[in-house]
């Protein structure tokens, strides 16, 4: 009898932890997309061009990518409860600082600190869920934690547009304050302390080299997209990033405890998902940046209406989740990635045909269709990534995948800005002003990157990942 209340209490605590981590995941993903519709108003406050504010998105996403690899080490060394609570505190305080800034430099600095908190918050929170949840409830718990990451991009643009239109963009960040404070109290109360910490060595050299490489490459792309940057400056940062990346690659292959384990790249399906999948993420991640700007600067819409239209893309994302498993089982990963990859790239090219005179229902239909195909492609790539990875390599593969995914999302935003700058150059006018024609060219350039993402798929066998998808394919070799 005495065990029953204890078991009930543990089940209650586990449920609260799952809900807490889901809320943290929601906050992290929301802050990656919510400012997209507020960029013109924020640029006016800071006295800069709206395209230059892409650094406000890329700096946050880049910081996530740089610091995610050390989240597991920090949790083992200092304890899950301590790290998760501290991460919530840092994220919340940085959110308030973002709302209080009056310049692009200070805003970017606050976003970097916010990204550090987010990088520790979600991976460590997921670890807390794994430790607190019984095995029979693990699948349900992980699904519950994952869904807010899908919902946040859905409501981010319209919520940001609503706040910006009817209040101030600063409240986009201030709304994190009550959520963060509640989360800090609940985390300290319900996440149990673990036993002795694990003192495995930290790969300082690998962390510095990987961080320097990612930061330099991302900043180079950011500079290429800004209107006041010389090409030589951007190329110098790109060179530094490539050299640091080569040094990091040399180091992690020769150290016993690398910050990022690359051994899973020997698995063909994982390597293909990382290469082609990264190009696909880059192309798709440019859309949340380009669409709101096109609707506001090109079509003359307010932030709220722009956000509502952008909502159609993410509505398509969620709708595809209902049938994506059946589609992959019916046709297999290789066929889905090839055919659907082409459709996803074509959907990006179709956005170049939109004009201020296009009826709303056609705009919504194009965006919704794009959301459907991109969701299926994401699902296929993410599932195939780990289909053949051995269990001993799963942790390293997961860390590498999360890091690359965050980097490519940030690169997508930078790609959108670069595409606009190239379009302005092709049309013979300064990048300080953008036209509808510039957005058309930008979407065509982005779609070209999307087309390039499918070439790695040709080398896959028709039966690749069949033991995961359940697809029954004839025994045919890969197309050479």
UniProtKB/TrEMBL annotation:
Chain segments annotated as transmembrane: 53-74, 86-106, 112-129, 141-159, 171-190, 202-221, 233-250, 270-291, 303-323, 335-354, 360-386, 407-427, 439-460
Family matches, as InterPro entries: EmrB-like (IPR004638), MFS (IPR011701), MFS_dom (IPR020846), MFS_trans_sf (IPR036259)
Primary subcellular site in the record, as a coarse category: membrane
UniProt membrane topology term: Multi-pass membrane protein
Keyword ATP-binding: no
Keywords, comma-separated and alphabetical: Cell membrane, Membrane, Transmembrane, Transmembrane helix, Transport
Protein name: DHA2 family efflux MFS transporter permease subunit
CDD domains: MFS_LmrB_MDR_like (cd17503)
Record's keyword annotation contains Transmembrane helix: yes
The organism's place on the tree of life at top rank: Bacteria
Limits of the Major facilitator superfamily (MFS) profile domain: 17-465
Subcellular location per the Swiss-Prot or TrEMBL entry: Cell membrane
């Amino acid at each position: 009898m005495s065990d029953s209340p204890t078991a009930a209490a543990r089940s209650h605590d586990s449920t609260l932890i799952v809900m807490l981590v889901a809320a943290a995941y929601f906050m992290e993903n929301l802050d990656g997309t919510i400012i997209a519709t507020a960029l013109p108003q924020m640029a006016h406050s800071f006295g800069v061009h709206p395209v230059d504010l892409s650094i406000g998105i890329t700096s946050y996403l880049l910081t996530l990518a740089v610091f995610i690899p050390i989240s597991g080490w920090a949790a083992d060394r200092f304890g899950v409860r301590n790290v998760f609570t501290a991460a919530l505190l840092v994220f919340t305080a940085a959110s308030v600082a973002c709302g209080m800034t009056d310049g692009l430099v200070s805003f970017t600095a606050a976003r970097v600190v916010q990204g550090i908190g987010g990088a520790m918050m979600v991976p460590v929170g997921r670890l807390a869920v794994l430790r607190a949840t019984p095995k029979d409830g693990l699948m349900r718990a992980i699904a519950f934690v994952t869904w807010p990451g899908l919902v946040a991009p859905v409501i981010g643009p319209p919520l940001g547009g609503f706040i910006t239109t009817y209040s101030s963009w600063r409240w986009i960040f201030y709304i994190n304050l009550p959520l963060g404070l509640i989360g800090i109290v609940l985390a300290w109360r319900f996440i149990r302390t673990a036993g002795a910490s694990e003192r495995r060595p930290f790969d300082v050299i690998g962390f510095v080299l990987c961080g320097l490489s990612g930061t330099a490459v991302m900043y180079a792309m950011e500079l290429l997209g800004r209107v006041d940057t010389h090409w030589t400056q951007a190329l110098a940062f790109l060179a530094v990033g490539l050299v640091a990346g080569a040094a990091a690659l040399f180091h992690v292959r020769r150290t016993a405890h690398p910050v990022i384990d690359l051994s899973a790249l020997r698995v063909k399906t994982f390597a293909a998902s990382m290469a082609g999948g990264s190009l696909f993420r880059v192309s798709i991640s440019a859309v949340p940046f380009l669409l709101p700007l096109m609707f506001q600067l090109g079509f003359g819409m307010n932030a709220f209406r722009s956000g509502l239209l952008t909502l159609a893309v993410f509505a398509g994302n969620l709708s595809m989740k209902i049938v994506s498993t059946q589609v992959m089982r019916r046709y297999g990963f290789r066929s889905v990635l090839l055919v659907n990859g082409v459709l996803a790239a074509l959907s990006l090219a179709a956005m170049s045909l939109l004009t201020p005179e296009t009826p709303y229902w056609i705009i919504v239909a194009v965006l919704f269709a794009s959301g459907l195909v991109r969701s299926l492609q994401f699902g296929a790539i993410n599932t195939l990534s780990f289909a053949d990875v051995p269990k001993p390599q799963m942790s390293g593969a997961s860390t590498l995948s999360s890091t690359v995914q965050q980097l490519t999302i940030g690169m997508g935003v930078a790609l959108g800005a670069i595409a606009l700058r190239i379009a302005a150059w092709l049309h013979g006018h300064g990048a300080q002003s953008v036209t509808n024609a510039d957005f058309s060219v930008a979407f065509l350039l982005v779609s070209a990157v999307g087309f390039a993402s499918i070439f790695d798929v040709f080398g896959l066998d028709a039966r690749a990942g069949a033991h995961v998808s359940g697809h029954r394919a004839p025994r045919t070799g890969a197309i050479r």
